[in-house]
Structures are given as C-alpha cells and as structure tokens.
Amino acid sequence: MINVSIIGSGNVAGHLVSAFAKSDAVQLVEVFSRRNSVDFTLPENASLVHDLDLLQDADLYIIAVTDGAVAQISEALPFKNRLVAHTSGTMPLEILHENNRKAVFYPLQTFSKTKAVNFLDIPICLEAQFPADFQLLERTARAISDKTYAINSAQRKALHVAAVFANNFTNHLYGIADEICREHQMPFEILKPLIAETAAKVMQLSPDEAQTGPAKRNDLKTIAAHEAFLSDYKKDIYHILTESIQNHGKKL
Amino acid sequence: MINVSIIGSGNVAGHLVSAFAKSDAVQLVEVFSRRNSVDFTLPENASLVHDLDLLQDADLYIIAVTDGAVAQISEALPFKNRLVAHTSGTMPLEILHENNRKAVFYPLQTFSKTKAVNFLDIPICLEAQFPADFQLLERTARAISDKTYAINSAQRKALHVAAVFANNFTNHLYGIADEICREHQMPFEILKPLIAETAAKVMQLSPDEAQTGPAKRNDLKTIAAHEAFLSDYKKDIYHILTESIQNHGKKL
Predict the structure, then answer these.
(1) A245, CA 20 to 30 Å: which among A28, A120, B180, B252?
(2) Chain-chain contact of A180 with B192 (C-beta, under 8 angstroms)
(3) Domains of chain A with bracketed CATH
(4) In this complex, is the C-beta atom of B233 within 8 Å of any C-beta atom belonging to chain A?
C-alpha cells in the first residue's frame, strides 16, 4: 500500500482524491487545504489538515495547486528528504525546493468541476530525480490510470503547448462555430455530431490523413466566398488557418 | 415507399447508398455513375446506370457530386418537373436547373472512405421550393437519420463556414499538436484522451463554459513562455487564437 497525501483543494486535487479513493493500491492519508472545507468528498480514512506542520508521514506528497504557488508551497513543507511531486504541465521539476526529493505527477486532461472524468483514460506524465522514486510514482499512477508516460521537463513543456492547441484553441474554434450558428438562427446542436466525429476520426487516422475541407483541396472559390462572408477576427482566423493548411497541411 | 435515385459515385453517394439500403421506408432505384464500377456495394434491387437518359422514374433524385459539377449535371437531366436535390453545403438551391423542382439534401458530416459513420446521428439539412416537396424530403431524411433541420440557403452557407471551423480547422490544430509531440519524441497517443474530452465537454457545456487555458485566465507569463517556445507559423496561430480568446472569449 502506497501512502499518498495531497496538498491543494482545487479541481485537480479533487479529481485525484476521488480517483485514489477508488484504488486499493493507494491509501490517501490526508488532504491539505488552507480553507476550512473542500468542494469534494474525502474518503473515510483520510483527514483534512489546514496546517502544513501537522502533515503526517507519507510515501508521496502531491502538490496540486496553481502553477504560481508550487515553489512557495514546496519550500514551506516542514520535512526533508521525502518524495514531493507537483502536478503542473508548465513548471519544471527544478521549481520544487531542494529540501525534498523532486518529482512530477502531471495528469494531462482538462478538468472542470461540473463534469466527471474517467481517470483510467487520463495519461499521467511522470518524472523523478531518482529511479526508485520513479518506480513508486509509476505504481501510484497505475493505481488510477491505464496510461503512464515518462516525460522529462523539456518534453512536458512542449506537451503543454501541444495541449493548448488540442484543447483550448480547439474549444475556441467550437465557440466561433457556435457564434456563427447563433448569428444565423441555428442551434449549436446541429454541429455536435460533426465535432464528435472530427475528434473520433483522429483516434483511428492521423490528423494529416483525416484532413478535409476547402483549404486541403485548395478550393480557392469556396475559400474566397467564405472570406467574403466573414468579417473581423473570424476572418483573420479563417485566413491564417487556411494558409497554414495550404502551406503545412502536407508536412504535418 | 419513397423511390430515390442517387446521381454520383463519390464518398457522399456511397454513404447515402449504404444508409438507404438499411431503410424500409426508402427504395433505392438506381445509382448513376460515369464509371463502370463504384467503390461501394449496391443493394440487390438497385441498378447502376452510366447514361442519364436511361434514368427511371423516382420520387427524388439526389445529386451527390462535387460542388462544381452540380449545375451541369442538373441541366443534363433528361426529364422535367421531377424533384431534384443536391447535397452541397456551399451551393444555393438556385444552382439547380429550372427544368425540375429544386431541393437540398445536405448531410452535415465529414465523410471518408476509410471510416464508417452512423448515419442516424448525422444532421440532414433540408430545403425545398415547395411545401409538399419539403415533406417528402423530410420523410426521406427521417428514414436514415434522427436529426433533420429546415435550413435555407443563406443559413446553409453560414453553417458550412461554421463547419470549417469545427471540423477542418480543428483537425489542423490536432495536426499542429501532433507535430509538436513528434518534434519532442512523444507519441500523439498521449493527446487522444484530451482531444476526446474536449469534444465531449461541449456536448454538455457551451464552448464558452468549457473554455480553459492560459488565454482564458489571462496568464500572461505562460502565454509569453509558449510564444517564446514556438516559432514560425505555429507561433502566429498561437498568437492570433490567444488574442481572440482574450478579446472575444467572454462574448462567445
């Protein structure tokens, strides 16, 4: 049994707590929160602490706080030479304080409070200073997910940028499509099967193989008609993405 | 029983043929193809014709050819005052020749030869000159799909642009994310659960509610780090989409 404590009370902390609560291989010891209550349910044997000095022994401390608070929290830990991991996609391993053995436990997923996720499908990106720590990290991750990857800090930085394209920017394109629908009295519902199929396609084909549309087939007449139809920032985005597909679509 | 003939032998024609083959409400009479063979299987009672002059009587002729060929094919039809629909997202109803009663039967989906689709989930956008024709069109569409919409030509034009954002451009962002992964020796697999969840989220939440990331939370430090990390066209796209989320993310 691996004893894990979680430091933080946000979205990622909450999802980790509920994932560990379902696992037989991990015992959740405590959750640290500055606040008196948390938005998620703690498993029976785990306690909530408000004072870092009261943290009990654990095999692994997972810091799940906002990126900017990781360094400070890791420095404030009142113990030495224990295994401490952060969950940030953007922070390097080195951001953690020298007092403890450093690691990263980064679940690559978009978490929101209002939507449950199946942790088994979530890739967990792992990094540690020492091989023995990496093994413990991997056993911990395998307790909640089928997908674990050894990803170093340079790779994780790249991965986070890739995730911004695949998640944040993609969602913004959905938002633009939604806006165009609303401007013409059509429900966003009408696009949902297309959105689902677009994502489903790249589960089987590479994005290059899956690419279709006016830019891919260099249909200049349709492109010109679309650009004439659009205005403002939607037109600019249409233009730059069309150009990118035309220039780089084959290379991708 | 509605008698339908399909004119064309491409992707859309093939998917329509296999959808109608499964329906009890529609009888597929014939498929017209310029070529001697087609890439898809014809149902037992349907025949393949190569000469427009040999086309038999049908309640509805669906022209499923490339956008540029719609006008010409509709003009070449050797009969008058029958119901003829095209399947194009970009062409107006009026592109069809005056000889026959005009309609549009536009399935809003991305079709590829290598991936089967479930037609029941595909929205079919319908338009007709006359109410009685619209009713027949709707009965035909309902025979293969649970989702039918009355969409006029102006709306369909907007919808096609929205679909370019939700499908073609989204897929290109997947391609950029794939490229970033490969540049840093990471498999595209690692992003697939995120891509699936990003699409799944907007089935329940609006894109505005689902939006996360550095641009949405105005995390200028991360944005600057990402822009310094990227180069070339990927940097330009990062910049314009970040700016768009910052300026218009709330409005969307």
Answers:
(1) B252
(2) no
(3) 2-151 (3.40.50.720), 156-248 (1.10.1040.20)
(4) yes
